[in-house]
Amino acid sequence: MPVKEKDEVLLEDIKEDLQNIRATIMASGDISRLDEYNFESLFGIYKNPEQQVVFIRTVYKQITREVLKFLSSKHIPEAMVNICVLYEVFKSQRGYIDVEMSLEDVECINQHVYRLGKKENAGIIREGMCAWNCLKRKKAIRICVMPFPDDEQSLMAIEEELESISKTLDNWDESRNESCID
Question: Superkingdom of the source (predicted)?
Fold first, then answer.
């Protein structure tokens, strides 16, 4: 059996945890059962802030994928449970790490929530709609043209580009200061 990459194992663990949470909520029909899960323990799971951001964004991305999958297959209660979980994970990070989504994903979720809002809904569906609206109201969702990269090579390229930009700006400031006449 081939050895799985660390990221693959992490992704499988996240999927399994989401499935267990969703199954518990769906079986009970009670969204307040989310309180049984200690989402606060996700805060500071990594001492290195960059690792924490990558980990939480991986969690966000997996939850978002599941929300979209359930919405497209008309499994609305399951999608709403995942939106509630997304909100709980965001709250666990005390608002420090926003949720990156493509514009298309945000619009898809918005359209479904808007349609659901026109109907009289209660329970899990209502809670999911409220969680989505809270995420938007708290500006927790950041629309990205390019979603957060999955691989370390892309992250390194972005980091190098940012360093290059920073050096250029530093040089620009120095050259402006030298040419100033007092």
Answer: Eukaryota
User: What is this structure's pTM?
Assistant: 0.73
**Count: domains in the chain:** 2
Asked if 42 and 65 sit in the same domain, the reply is: yes
**Residue 31 and residue 75 in one domain:** yes
Instruction: Give 143 or 80, the one with higher predicted confidence.
Output: 80
Q: What DSSP line would sit under 132-172, residue for residue?
A: HHHHHHTT-EEE-SSPPPSSHHHHHHHHHHHHHHHHHHHHH
**Residues 7-53 pLDDT 10s:** 566 778 888 888 999 999 989 989 999 988 888 888 888 888 888 88
Domain shared by 50 and 28, yes or no: yes
- Which residue segment(s) compose the domain that 167 sits in? 149-182
Instruction: Examine residue 1 and state whether it is found in any structural domain, yes or no.
Output: no
CA–CA gap between residue 36 and residue 27 (Å, rounded): 15
pLDDT, position 177 = 47
Cβ contact 92:42 at 8 Å: yes
pLDDT-derived band at 119 (thresholds 50, 70, 90) equals confident
- Tell me, yes or no, whether 23 and 87 share the same domain: yes
Please, what is the average pLDDT of the chain? 82
